[in-house]
Design a protein that fits this description.
Length: 433
Amino acid sequence: MSFTAAFRNSLRNLLTKESSMVLTNRIPSHESLEEKFRDIDEFGLYLHIPFCRQICPYCPYNIEIYDSETAQKYALAVNREIDFYAKLLGKKPVTSFYIGGGTPTVMLRDGLEVIFDHIFKSFNLQCEIHMESHPNDLTPGNLEVIKALKVDNLSMGVESLQDKYLQLLKRPYTAEEVKRVVERTAAKDFKCFNVDFIFALPGQTYGELEKAAAELASLDIDQVASYPLFYFPYTRMGEPIKRGNYSLPEILRRRKMLRILENIYYDRGYDRTSVWAFTKQGAPKYCSVTVPLYVGLGASGGSYHRDVFFLNTFNDHEYIKTVEGGKMPIALSLDLSENMQMAWWFYWRVYETRFKRSAFQKRFGKSFNEVYGSYIRMFSALGYVKRDDGDEIVLSDKGIYWLHSVEDLFSLDYISKLWGTSKQEPWPEKVAL
Ligand SMILES: C[S@@+](CC[C@H](N)C(=O)[O-])C[C@H]1O[C@@H](n2cnc3c(N)ncnc32)[C@H](O)[C@@H]1O
Ligand code: SF4
């Protein structure tokens, strides 16, 4: 067993008291879901659109090449899945709605409006809409369609502003072209316009990153989500790389690069709103589903409610066939002990870079200090806490980076196992994390 795997196992034992975590094909029954959902006050919706016009060589998500006929069948299947949850959740408020992918904008004129109509009719939507998009889909006409769909917050994958890195990532546009799309989209006054940007690219210098980030900050963007390039073993770029994510030189290079981004964005009036995101002061944050219970619709949609997590089949043809046959498309589920739920809560609060002890108390009916107080004392001693007013804890930039690097030991490994297997097998018997 590698040192990384041994360290991961010990830390998981310590935090969750579990020696293993295994998702199985034991599907929650209609009755058990009805029972679980009875007491909830609100929930979030995530809708997955698994289609793209191209497959990028680094991309870990559940995607396949778009074709119009499948997309239209997919829209009708999603509507059947919505009917199932509408019966269970009735008119309880939906307080977060996120459409991700893949590339949701490939379906703009091919079923997305059919799904939106059905969601508006079936659920009690009381929130803004956040959606991902691809630059090549954001023509002036399509931006009008997006506005007409009442999307409030839009994200776009720009990834780089240098042609040689756009070519390396096989992105189908030039730096000049994508800058024009950014300007056109910024002029449409979304409440938050987020741009995704990838750094720590092979061969990228600190000077190149600084130039690109400064250029991005000079455009009229509300939020920049800057991710280091991660290597997933089942992707074309990840397959030949063995220790790309965890090698010490790479971890230190990412830290130095992230510090360059922190300096530029703080200087230009952006605040940090997650490990990788910087949001302009005064702008709302662009983010995925934010509430403790969420329902994931579509192929690879994941749902979470307190002590259970379940995941739909990744295969869109199986998804369509199963839902058309009147069955739920859930492929795998995991029951979470209380320790696992608390660790899951803590993981996301570190990701958001701040959290309140009172929120933990409200969620678990337990004192945060009794469960995690010793960790917070250790984080303070290491300089990982920027502010602690007795209730709210705000992590320092150093703390955010190093704590999240530890989290990545789990998340990158779990994603590789869970998504890697689910992409190959539509109905896996089990996946051990
Ligand atoms: C679903 S895509 C965004 C929308 C659209 N499909 C596109 O590519 O423009 C989500 C984002 O995840 C990020 N991403 C994908 N694969 C990544 C990887 N291997 N490492 C780091 N970031 C990655 C990219 O910044 C990408 O924009
Ligand atoms: S990065 Fe975006 S466009 Fe590329 S394959 Fe992934 S989801 Fe599709």
